[in-house]
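Notes to self after the Tuesday call (sharing in case useful).
The group wants a holo model before anyone commits to mutagenesis around the pocket. I volunteered. Ligand is NGO. Logging inputs and output together so the record is complete.
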Amino acid sequence: MINRKKYFATAALLVFVVLLNHDALSAKSHSDLSGASIIPKPVSITATGDYFVLKPQCDIYIQGQSEELKQIGQYLADKLKQSTGFAIDVITTDKAPKHGNIFLKLADNSANSKPEDEGYELTITGGMVLLSAVNPAGFFHGIQTLRQLLPARIEMASKQAGPWKIATGTISDYPAYVYRGAMLDVSRHFFSVQDVKRFIEFLACYKMNFLHLHLSDDQGWRIEIKSWPDLAKHGGSTQVGGGQGGYYTQEQYSDIVNYAKQRYITIVPEIDMPGHTNAALASYPELNCSGKATELYTGTNVGFSTLCTNLDVTYKFIDDVVRELAAITPGPYIHIGGDESHSTKREDYIPFINKVQDIVISHGKKIIGWDDIAIASLKPGVVAQHWANVKNAVKAVDQGARILMSPANKAYLDMKYDKSTTLGLHWAGYIEVDSAYIWDPATLIPGVGKESVLGIEAALWTETITNIKDIEYMVFPRLPGYAEIGWSPSSGRNWDEYKIRLGKQEERFKAMDINYYPSQKVPWQEAR
Ligand code: NGO
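Result:
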C-alpha cells in the first residue's frame, strides 16, 4: 500500500516536472528573438529575452496623418483581426502610445531618405511593438517580418486561440537588391484576376517587389488593347490544350496593378516580340508578311512565329499597344520579350529591337528584354533578363545594361523538382529546393558583378500548369529561397541553416492553405 502511494507520488512529481520544463521551454522559444525563423533572413537581429503579448485591447498607432501609412496600418489590422478576433483600431497620433500597442513611426532620418529605400527597424519590448522606416515600403516589409514573428496560426482565415506572443529585441533590415520578383506566364494558360491576386499575396509575404506578367505569346493574347480589339477577343480565345483562354480588360488589369501597388509590388507587363506572336498574327492578317492570318495555336512549340519586321503597320501596331499599356502601367518598365525569335532573320531582328526600344522610350518607359536582345544596340537604362545565354548577358553588360537574373537552371519555377514531379518541364534540368537556393546572382556569371545586377526574378512558365493549386506546387517551397537570395546579404546565407528556417515555414504554408511540394531535402517541422 505504502509503496503504491509512493509510486503515485513520484509519478505525479515527474509529470509536474515535465510540464514545468515544457512550459519553460516554450516560454524560452517565445522569448528568443534570435531563434525566430524569418525568411528572408534579416540583416541583423538582437534578442533581449522577453516577450510582448498581443492582447484584445491592442491598437495600431500611426505617427502623423499620412493616408498611405494609415492604409498600411489598416492592412496590418485586417490581417491580425482575422485570426485573433480582436477589434484592432488604427489611430493617428503625435506621441508614443501607451503600453500594449503597435506603433508605426517614421524614422528620424526619413528626411534624407532615397525613394528606393525599403529598409525598416522593428523594436519589440515587453510593452510595445515599434516599427520604423523612412518609406511606406519599409513599413510594409516590416509588417511581413512581424507576421512571421507571431505564431503561424496568425495566418488562419478564422478566429484562433491565443496567446499571441512575440519575442523581444531589435531587427534592422534592408534588401540586397532593388528588384526581387517573379514572373507569371498567363498566356500559355490563362489565370483569373483572383488567382493573380493570390500569387501577389505570396510575393508580398516574402518582401518581393516586382511581378512580371507574360501577357502575350503564341497561344494567347491576354490584355485588352482598345485600338486593336481582336488581339484579346480572338487572340485571347484559347490556350495550350485548346481550353477557352481569356484576357484581362484594361479595368481588370488596373485592378491587379492597384492590388499589387498596395502591397508595394510593381507590375511589369510583357508583350513578347518579334517571335512568340502567333496570337497577334492570328488576329490581324495585315501583321503577316503573307497578308493572311495564321490559325490560333494551342501546342507548346516555340520559335515558329514572327512579326513582319519590314512593314510600317508592324510599328504602328507596337506603338498603339505600348501606348495603351504604358497608360495603365504606373511602374517604370515595359518588357519587350525578344526571346527565341528563331523565325526572324538576324539582320531583321537587330533593327527591329532598336526601333522597339525607341517606341518604349517615347512612351516614357524603361525597357526590359530577355538576354537575346543584347545582340542589338541597347539604349541607356535597358535591363537584360538573363535566362539562358551567358554570352548575351556579358554582351549586355558591356553595353552598359544591367542584368535581371533568371537563369533557367536555377530560377525557372516551371522546372521539375526531380524525376518524379508530374508537373513542369525539365529542359534546363531538375531544380530541387536546395539547388534553387544555392547560387549567388553576383558571382553566377564571370564578368557580371553585383554592381551590374539589378536583381533576381523567378519565372513560372505555364505550358503544363493549369490552375492555382498547380501554381502553388511549383512555387512552394522554392519561392521563399529566391526572395532570400534577393533580399539577404549573401555572406549570411547557407543552405544548412536556411533549410531549418524553411522547414519551420510549413505550418504557415498549411495555415495559408498552400499546396506545397514536401521536398525530402527540407527538415519539415512544427516551429511551436
Ligand atoms: C523559355 C522560353 C519560353 C518557355 C520557357 C519554358 C524563355 C525566355 N523563352 O524561356 O517560351 O515557356 O523557356 O521553360
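Two things stood out.
DSSP finds 16 helices and 17 strands in the chain.
Residues 2-31 form the longest helix (30 residues).
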